[in-house]
Amino acid sequence: MRLGFAVPIFANPGVPDFRTPNAERLDWDEVRSAVLEAERLGYDALWVADHMFLGRDGAIYEGWTTLSVLAGMTSSMRLGTIHLGNEFRHAPLTAKMAATLDVQSGGRLELFVDPGWRERELTAYGYEWEPDRAVRAARVAEAIELAKLLWSGEPVSYAGEHYRLDEAICTPTPVQRPHPPIWIGEAFDEATLDLIATHADVWNSMPAGLDVLREKIAKVEAACEARGRDPRTLRKTLETQVLIYDERAEGERLFERFAQLRQQHPSGEAMRDVVAFVAQTNAELGRDELTFDDLRDEFVIGTPDEVRAKLEAYRALGIDEVICWFMDFPEATSMRRLMQEVAPALAGGEVAA
Q: What global pTM score does this model have?
């Protein structure tokens, strides 16, 4: 099982079900140090989210810029986009950017693209909002088609419903052949499932417990079969939150700290539309009052042995990579223990002392 490090490029203090609940502020030095530590520890990939504003105060680094900077700071980890918003950038330009970053990073790019979901975020920045997700998914399908054509290095003319090219040239081409892996996430509706079954090399789920994830995988595999694709040709991955401790009381104390942080740092305007989206991806996380045990069910939380068992259960469902948000960041305890104590056991080795 591959383990990826989700780069904490926003702070969301006190909200235990959304990514960075222990971070009170955004700090570039902390982010940079965490990425360098992740590479030293041996994480397989780093992953950067793509938003204009997110977290308690909306402060977040722009995704593609950040990924490019981190590409120059690292040498071994693969470089992933988390739900790269197709609506934020002209798709042919994204294809050119992807080719460039793949070349300059030595073939490390994982291109995770998304039709987008935050109407408020787009309209706030002056983009037009397309309310029909099927149309947005169709735009992603064309974006992937034209990207693959451009990555051939030959002049490309393309006349789609949403994009047009006239003898466009995209060289140098990506290092990876036939192209950087294409990731698509979630399993919302038929349009999304069609996108996954037709165009994805890798499917990703947002955080989900074993029962919810099992249902999602069944939908995705059924969509592949309905379209004549062998589901085994689609890699299945999970984005989730991770917390490792020696005793449950440690986790409960952190959960209590989150409650204190919520009072000290109430969420502002930047997050008011996110709660509904989280519930859409997993109804178990959409409840008003989540308990510590709710978090343990839906995330990867526990002692090293419990975390290993949860990851092995995910692997038994077919998950071969986990993108990890560490709930105790800016502390590095969980990110270190996952690689030093849990990963060797997952690989069949001995747990480190």
A: 0.94
